[in-house]
């Protein structure tokens, strides 16, 4: 199934509907089922001890899923997160960027599921994993639960 | 089982080890198994459309769990989040504070589990639920996975 | 919001659409937002060591949610589980029944979320917690994802 | 890191400590970080409509994780499930076996995390995904939470 938005179109659209994205995130790669997003780690993402905060990791996983879904369904800003599960497995390195690799497991008419691994750049051992589920509103509706 | 820290001791300790807490969170109530924490909703917690962002809800659930665990085990800053699951069920109201009510389901020697409901102040319908699991390092160790 | 089925109607319907229920489960209590279901623990539910197996606990939490949803929406056998999270916190006692208490957190047009605590009968410390999400097909459709 | 048990040693040990395994499951493949397990689908695993039941899918994901952990840590029957999350994404085909592919994301001294995809044999679209966390008791201890 083809992409509805290419990499440049996707970043432009994300910056419009979700302006804080441009400060925090960069899009490294995009294919039909996978996307790689980078958290540009800065002081505001850190916890004492020099690790990346949990909320920052959640934000990265969530944003990567949102971007992956939009890349496939097009400009539907109202897609909303309905669920997540995360496991935090290793201490992140706060001195480098954090990389999220998402694989889209399902894209149905109303529900999408993505699996995400988070890495500190330069390491191949995941610091965390996440699953995010998104609700996609029917065309023309004014949806939204949370996110 | 008694509390190791009372409400005032807990907030003082949280402010020391986790300074951003004081800006974002307030502790409304504390008992042996339950704690109520408030997110002081400000512009930086909002998404377009006037809802509270997912990362802000994650941060509130996480901070409430951390505080509940410390209230019971005492000053052990190194307790770390190892897992979470969340369901986002209703659109939060960005014009009021968000309230987290946590119930501690288990406090073992090395693992704690808390169930959290999140409400927009003034509503009795939860906007989200969360479960957070925490790893508690053995006394004297230098632990830490993530957070 | 009133119940669509009372306790007797619910058990009769469950036995029709899901015959194995009658052998394994009993319905102890039902109100608008809460339901108590019992696993009639038998040898086939046990693991070596005399504990109740994980799949049996999953089945109990899942069946309690299915029953709670049907009690509210009526005879819609095609409601399907779309997600679950569970935490196993204490060793269950295989010599007594297991009790599930479910609280319905959300019942939307297409999605339901229930929180479940599982207890070995006679103990007030939960052996496990679960969250189950259900997809409810639109009236008249032939739905189904899994279950 | 090498395997503590090869494929034959693992199946022999599983059959000793967990006798029902031999009836329900077969081990298709094993490497250092991945394992493929098969549910030998029979009538007792089915739901009305010819789909594989949720508890059977849970059992497959759980057993695959248990086997993967034992393959690495050796004969430690007391490893126990402490948490799981699952998403059910497509309707399973009850007329063929179900295949679980597990990837071990973390194996620490006391905690293991595995990500599992479940497929109906012959399809490359996952019917479900799961994450299982296991607690590994210290050598010589008599552990156990649940499972």
UniProtKB/TrEMBL annotation, chains A, B, C, D:
Thioesterase domain segment(s) = 49-124
Q: Which GO terms describe its molecular function?
A: thiolester hydrolase activity
Q: Which domain of life is it from?
A: Bacteria
Q: What is this protein called in UniProt?
A: Thioesterase
